[in-house]
Amino acid sequence: MAQISVNGKWIEANDGALLIDVLLKNNVDVPHFCYHPALGKDGNCRMCMVEIEGKKRPQIACDTPVVDGQVIRTKGENIDKVKRSILELELINHPVDCPICDQAGECKLQDYYMDVGLYDSRLDTEKTHGKKHVDLGSEVMLDQERCVLCTRCVRFTKDITKTGELGVLQRADHSVITTFPGRKLDNPYAMNVVDLCPVGALTSKDFRFNKRVWFLEKFDAICNGCAKGCNIQVDHHKDKYKDDIIYRYRPRVNEAVNGHFICDHGRLLYKKENENRLHVNLIQNREESFAKTLTVAKAFLQDNGADTTIVLSPSLSVEAMVMLKHVAKKYNAKLVVGAYGYYDETFGDDFLKSNDLAMNRQGALTLGLEVKDADPKTVISAAKAVLFIALEEQDSWIGAASMLNIPCALISAFNSTCLNTCQWVLPLASHMEREGSYVNIDGFLQHSDGGVVSD
Predict the structure, then answer these.
(1) pTM for the full model?
(2) Which entry of 181, 215, 231, 393 is 20 to 30 Å from 311 by CA?
């Protein structure tokens, strides 16, 4: 361990660790563009300059190892002047379009600019212009004029996805980020470059101009796209007299599970939460009150007893599964986890995507539940009555019950084309409307908050 002094305060750190990591970990504000924990150092933006006693000139914190006894200053007249000059260079050709930029409110250049106060430009020649609203592919738009050439996006496609679609072309103040000739940004993780971009150069076509970020409320959740269980942040907003709407998912750092990234498929699953929702209680396809429908539901379970099979989703939370175990025991019903439709051998990869699309299969197995991947007909063939709960392929399950002439009921967050064949139907809160715990494919128990308000 090493002892270093930062702005007059002594800090303990691992000898040889990167100085910028130590400073950020100890909540010391260090402006930076090119450095990112998942991408490592690059040293091209020079924004993370610090003063170190004994050094003739300022050093970049992203390429300076910690040495015992270092005396470091991140603030002061000299180092502030250096940072101000570097920031002025970044701003020389940058367009002042914050009012129409999607990154406004989340932009590091904007934050640093407000801190330093470079409100008056000293440039007396025309700015160098680049291409605007360039469609790179994979739901990503590029504004070359806003780019600070941190190269995070280039390094992401080179070192993380290893697809290499992006590069820095041309020279000097005409240098731009773009795709190589004849190529498009096209990989299953491409939209992560939007999160990596510290300014508004790379924006999401899906999110562009939809909502100002300062209106968004946020909560932490687990992606329900597959068994990997990536950690995400859910950004949502409820306008007056309107439903609570999810506007985007963003990756949340968990080094043990997904690191700093998520796949594009999981990122866009928020749309499903907003669409085709089931909000009515039905008895024999007629809308009824919740109280009356619940009475019919209890009678359905009571009357059929041991002849009832309850088929639940392998993506329900551990808490929901435990509750359903008690329900099945109370009514002497058979409880089965229906995993049909939750496996896709073309989906997974060796990074963050699993072929198993059930987000809590491991949780079900840990609880000792019977998990069946067989087709619906095989699973329910011996039942005299069946209740389906939150299944992905619910139309297939209801259709199978109808073909076998088995009375069925449904509890779901989403509409079905087969509701008219169900004896009763109850709406369910969606994944992002309820909290719960999930065990991912690697055995990690994780908690997902429910922050969306259900009407």
Answers:
(1) 0.93
(2) 231
Q: Are 444 and 428 in contact (CB under 8 A)?
A: no
3-state SS, one letter per residue, for the chain: CEEEEECCEEEEECCCCEHHHHHHHCCCCCCCCCCECCCECCCCCCCCEEEECCCCCCEEHHHCECCCCCEEECCCHHHHHHHHHHHHHHHCCCCCCHHHCCCCCCCHHHHHHHHHCCCCCCCCCCCCCCCCCEEEECCEEECHHHCCCCCHHHHHHHHHCCCCCEEEECCHHHCEEEECCCCCCCCCCCCHHHHHCCCCCEEECCCCCCCCHHHCEEEEEECCCCCCCCEEEEEEEECCCCCEEEEEEEECCECCCCECCCCHHHHCCHHHHHCCECCCEEECCEEECHHHHHHHHHHHHHHHHHHEEEEECCCCCHHHHHHHHHHHHHCCCEEEEECCCCECCCCCCCCCCCCECCCCHHHHHHCCCEEECCCHHHHHCCCCEEEEECCCCHHHHHHHHHHCCCCEEEEECECCCCHHHCCEEEECCCHHHCCEEEECCCCCEEEECCCCCCC
**210-245 confidence digits (pLDDT tens):** 999 999 999 999 999 999 999 999 999 999 889 999
Where does the pLDDT of residue 114 fall: very low under 50, low under 70, confident under 90, or very high at 90 and above?
confident
Residues 259-318: pLDDT tens digits? 999 999 999 999 999 999 999 999 999 999 999 999 999 999 999 999 999 999 999 999
| pLDDT of amino acid 423 | 97
- In whole angstroms, what is the distance from residue 94 CA to residue 192 CA? 23
Q: Are strands 385-389 and 202-204 parallel, antiparallel or unpaired?
A: unpaired
On the question of pLDDT at 117 being above 80, the answer is no
